[in-house]
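ok so for the tutorial part 2 we go from a plain amino acid sequence to predicted structure tokens. step 1 is just haveing the sequence, like this:
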Amino acid sequence: MVQGGRGRRVWAARGLWAGAELAVTLGLLVLLLVAHQLWWTNREARAEAGRTVHSLEEQWGKGGRSLVAMPPAAGGEQPEGSASVAPDERVSVGEGPAPRRPSTGTGASGAKGGPRGDQAYAVIRIPRIGVTAPVAQGISKAGVLDKGYVGHYAQSAQPGEVGNFALAGHRNTHGEPFRHIDELRAGDQVVVETRDTVFTYVVDSVLPQTAARDGGTIAPVPRSDVKPSYGYSEPGHYITLTTCTPEFTSTYRLVVWGKLRGSRPR
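step 2 — the prediction. this is what the tokens look like for a chain of 266 residues:
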């Protein structure tokens, strides 16, 4: 009986030791996963995004083909060196027709329709929060967002067009270009550069939290379907920045809206 009791105690001790080793191993794996998500993915994505920005600027400097053309002015072509200023103002909800969207012009391949899917074709700069990142067509994770790029909702307007130039970016991990867009305030600048033109938008309004499926926030005339007191009701030249909130979750969306102040040749 004594030997049997001692044997059970030995096996119990071995079981506890094995359990402790397993817990430590699992803890280390979790720490490695966290380190990978919070440090390594940011490092890799920021490096990739930086290379892409440099490549675009180098291409533009050599006079590469424009990926996004300026929308034509009323009654003719856009005069060289002229500025486009959005005359729209925030008004009460419930009025105004949806704007017509001009053509995006000639894409990289020479065919009409704008940039191809996952193609980086512009650079966004947000001075207040120190952001410089490529803008790519589409919002796929693997092809765009996880590379540290800012993604363009493909059915929304292009830079400078009448309508809503709507963008998405990671708030945490994979370069997290939109980590601090909650710090943006009315009057802050958002600059978008294409091959031919530099567009300057000015932050106008922030929707701190809305549902992930609130499609009204990226509509041509952006207005929240969930919180309709936030948004606009007249056509204009808008920009929309969207990201997940609260941090380290994807439960809701944070939305920043701005209006086009003007543009100039690059």
